[in-house]
């Protein structure tokens, strides 16, 4: 598995997304993924599945220390006391005494970054958090977070797939040695039926989904965290490190727009950042 170096971390370039995978099925997915070779799992307080993610790791035959485990502070838990208390609950649910990466899930327009990052810095010093990160931050917000935090900010986890341009943020991340973690890398499923991706994939005997993931992990500093539930999907998504897209194919994929629905969805993070819910 390729890795991306950021902060003090080596982040496996492909991780398992777990949003909307809850209940016993989630523990099973995590256990299967680890058995197949995944070493990076992404969860969040908001996903209501930290206990099942912890259970999947515990049930697997992979050591906890060999898994890169991410969780995220919920937007309602960004005040200092809430951040610490909710993080302790996350550790309990995950059945571990540290996470590899702790993210601010969404910036809150009414909570100064200093307040949350101060607690995250303490958790980093105490050893319960190995890396700090943010999610859904603009390039300016990422720059500001990096100025405020004492510990390195290893990643900004953002919406990134062939239908979403992130070139400004990616340029910054590549210059500064920050990982860009791509969420919804398959466009929440849209990439799977994309004719252009399928056509490119035919050359390599790969599916459209695999081409979308390859396009991401082939870019410097990019990590992708596709969500998959079935063994077949889990296995397929890992098999993206044995072929290479040409420069022309990379550009063609970057030029894709996606459906109107996808383009509207792509505007959601911008709206969410402004709404103080
Ligand atoms: P996604 O990964 O783009 O797409 C997931 C969909 O693709 C699921 O329906 C999955 O089906 C399907 N799929 C996966 N692999 C496939 C394959 N090889 N062939 C065909 N279909 C396949 O969507 P996402 O869940 O929105 O994003 C991924 C992860 O990013 C999340 O789970 C979460 O961990 C993270 N995320 C973070 C944020 C944030 O604000 N930080 C926001 C959104 C997501 P099955 O489940 O049936 O396999």
Would you write up a description of this structure?
With 277 residues, the protein is an alpha/beta fold. It is 44% helix and 15% strand. The protein has helices at residues 24-36, 50-59, 80-94, 113-126, 139-148, 167-176, 195-204, 208-217, 231-238, 247-254, 260-265, 268-274, and strands at 3-6, 9-12, 16-17, 40-42, 68-73, 101-104, 132-135, 153-159, 179-183, 222-224. The chain is globular and about 55 Å long. It starts with a strand and ends with a helix. The relative contact order is 0.14. The mean pLDDT is 96. Bound molecules: NADP nicotinamide-adenine-dinucleotide phosphate. The site of NADP nicotinamide-adenine-dinucleotide phosphate has 26 residues, from α9. NADP nicotinamide-adenine-dinucleotide phosphate (NAP) binds next to α9.
Head-to-tail CA distance between termini: 39 Å
- Based on DSSP secondary structure assignment, what is the total number of beta strands? 10
Report the sheet with the most strands, covering strand number, pairing sense and barrel closure: 8 strands, parallel
Radius of gyration: 18 Å
| Portion in beta strands | 15-25%
* Poorly predicted runs: none
Number of helices: 12
Strand order of the largest sheet: 3-4-5-6-7-8-9-10
Query: Percent helix among the residues?
Result: 40-55%
Morphology call: globular
Which ligands, by name, code or SMILES, are bound?
NADP nicotinamide-adenine-dinucleotide phosphate
SSE sequence, one letter per element: EEEHEHEHEHEHEHEHHEHHHH
The chain-level structural class is: alpha/beta
User: Mean pLDDT across all residues, rounded?
Assistant: 96
């Amino acid at each position: 598995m390729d890795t991306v170096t950021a902060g003090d971390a080596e982040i496996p370039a492909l991780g398992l997304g777990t949003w909307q995978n809850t209940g016993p099925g989630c523990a099973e997915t995590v256990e299967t993924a680890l058995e197949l070779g995944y070493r990076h799992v992404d969860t969040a307080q908001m996903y209501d599945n930290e206990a099942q993610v912890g259970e999947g790791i515990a049930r697997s035959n992979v050591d906890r220390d060999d898994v890169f485990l991410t969780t995220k502070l919920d937007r309602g838990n960004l005040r200092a006391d809430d951040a610490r208390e909710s993080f302790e609950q996350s550790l309990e649910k995950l059945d571990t005494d540290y996470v590899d990466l702790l993210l601010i899930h969404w910036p809150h327009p009414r909570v100064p970054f200093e307040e949350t990052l101060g607690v995250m810095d303490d958790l980093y010093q105490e050893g319960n958090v190995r890396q700090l990160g943010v999610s859904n931050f603009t390039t300016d917000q990422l720059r500001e977070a990096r100025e405020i935090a004492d510990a390195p900010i290893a990643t900004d986890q953002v919406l990134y797939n062939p239908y979403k341009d992130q070139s400004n943020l990616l340029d910054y991340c590549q210059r500064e040695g920050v990982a860009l973690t791509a969420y919804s890398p398959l466009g929440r499923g849209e990439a799977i039926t994309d004719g252009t991706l399928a056509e490119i994939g035919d050359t390599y005997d790969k599916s459209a989904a695999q081409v979308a993931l390859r396009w991401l992990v082939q870019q410097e500093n990019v990590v992708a965290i596709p969500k998959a539930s079935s063994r077949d999907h889990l296995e397929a998504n890992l098999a993206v490190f044995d072929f290479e897209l040409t420069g022309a194919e990379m550009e063609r994929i970057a030029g894709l727009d996606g459906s109107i629905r996808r383009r509207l969805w792509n505007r959601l993070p911008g709206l969410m950042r402004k709404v103080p819910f």
